[in-house]
Specification:
431 residues; alpha/beta; VC0802-like; Rossmann fold; 2 domains; eight-stranded mixed beta sheet; six-stranded mixed beta sheet; 14 strands; binds adenosine-5'-triphosphate; binds magnesium ion
């Protein structure tokens, strides 16, 4: 492994010329290499609270970072003592940052530069950063915030701040403001290296995908279910998805929409298998089998059974929907109870308390909104009653399901098994 602390590329802040000064502690045996000094510091969130599971969470997170960054050439992840550093050649920094912002388990991200272990190198880099910031954001003041985890470094953090601060002031004339600076240049002095950065980009938060089991998401082309899926990814769950289409009443565009939505979720959570269920015949039969007003609940109950079967195949231990209390007439607590009675798996509903405006806001942020509002419905309005039942009773649902069994000449389990057997499974890799 290359020793990042041994870089030697100092410049004289006054003249801008290269200096021949060497780092006393770690003499460099390599020439100046501007590119190899670029890195991104990753900050871990809740993973740090996980006690005995911490190493496992960190390994999972590291694997997720590695796989998300695999399309970028020349990128290397280093994980010293549970910290994470991504080294790169500088050619793709913003794309890398954007990618890292989609990895759950990271609270924030800082593009940084590694410098030699001496005050002059820090001053040069801090001056460069201040000069760049003055060109782009016109800050009116700055401060240096130094932190020294390697106490063997001869200066204290306040001393470092003071010395580097005066060098920057001398070179740029930018005033120092210790309380409300427009620009904060941070310096981290660790045993492995010295890093400077001037921004903290918000991370996705949550837990690394893969630490919390798997859910099978009932994914429609609407606004809600993709957001529900994203919230579960955020808590470290993996996803499989199942969608119900009713051709010819729903067109191919409806499935394209769901595929695009699934693709967007893979950006955040890695590969997802999407199971496409052709629901037309069963849906028609359900519409006939019970009171019309109960139709939506009957569809959902059958969807639950199908999803449960998919979940067993996928090794998932929960189902998930985008339902929310009171959002549409059919989403009452009584109906939700009647719906989940049809499955023995827990039904996760991350949006249960969300206002539609909150869901829309999140949908915009995660990149699903524009797809969700395309006009191709996942369900034909012909199938939807004008006045849906709001207090579904399980016994009446069960009666309707018995009628369905007679109409279809087979029991419900067989109907469900057939739907799953005939499903098209689309495997989507991480986008
Ligand atoms: P969404 O915006 O997710 O479609 P919604 O507010 O429109 O939700 P409904 O259409 O009543 O509510 O659906 C409730 C939930 O049932 C959805 O969030 C989804 O999880 C599931 N669901 C509904 N229709 C389908 C479908 N065609 N395929 C898969 N799941 C579906
Ligand atoms: Mg919907």
């Amino acid at each position: 492994m290359t020793d990042r602390t041994s870089r030697d590329r100092k410049q004289n802040p006054e003249t801008g010329e290269g200096s021949s000064l060497r780092d006393d502690h770690q003499p460099s045996n390599r020439g100046p290499d501007r590119q190899a000094d670029q890195l991104i510091l990753l900050r871990l969130g809740e993973v740090f609270l996980k006690g005995d599971n911490r190493p496992y969470f960190i390994r999972r997170l590291a694997r997720n970072v590695q796989s998300a960054l695999s399309p970028f050439p020349g990128v290397r992840l280093e994980t010293p003592h549970g910290r994470m550093l991504v080294w790169h050649d500088g050619s793709n920094q913003e794309a890398l940052v954007a990618r890292l912002q989609q990895i759950f388990g990271l609270t924030s991200i800082s593009p940084a530069v590694s410098v030699a272990r001496d005050i002059q190198a820090m001053s040069v880099q801090a001056t460069t950063m201040a000069t760049q910031a003055m060109e782009t954001n016109a800050p009116r003041s700055f401060r240096i915030s130094a932190h020294r985890s390697d106490k063997s470094f001869p200066l204290t953090s306040p001393e470092i701040g003071k010395q580097v601060g005066s060098a920057v002031f001398d070179a740029t004339g930018l005033p120092v403001d210790l309380t409300h600076p427009d620009l904060t240049i941070e310096i981290r002095i660790t045993r492995r290296g010295v890093y400077l950065f001037d921004r903290r980009v918000r991370g996705a938060g949550g837990l690394p995908v893969g630490v919390s089991g798997r859910a099978t998401l009932l994914l429609s082309g609407g606004i809600d279910s993709p957001v529900a899926g994203w919230l579960l990814l955020k808590r470290g769950m993996r996803l499989s998805a199942v969608t119900f289409i009713s051709p010819p009443y729903t067109g191919p565009e409806a499935l394209d929409k769901v595929t695009t939505l699934t693709n967007t979720l893979t950006e955040w959570g890695g590969p997802i298998r999407l199971h496409v269920i052709r629901f037309t015949d069963v849906q028609k039969a359900l519409r006939q089998a019970g009171p019309g007003d109960l139709a939506v609940v009957l569809y959902r109950r059958t969807m639950m059974r199908v999803a449960e079967k998919v979940a067993r195949r996928e090794g998932a231990n929960a189902l998930a929907t985008g339902e929310s209390i009171g959002q549409v007439a059919s989403q009452t607590v009584e109906n939700l109870a009647a719906i989940e009675q049809a499955t023995s798996l827990p039904v996760l509903r991350p949006l249960v308390t969300y206002d539609k405006t909150e869901t829309i806001e999140l949908a915009r942020r995660i990149g699903t909104y524009e797809t969700s509002i395309l006009p191709y419905d996942d369900m034909c309005s012909l199938f939807i009653p004008k006045h849906p039942e709001t207090k579904a009773r399980v016994d009446i649902c069960q009666q309707a399901e018995q009628t369905l069994e007679q109409d279809m000449g087979q029991d419900l389990q067989a109907t469900v098994a057939k739907l799953v057997d005939e499903a098209e499974v689309i495997s989507l890799p991480r986008k």
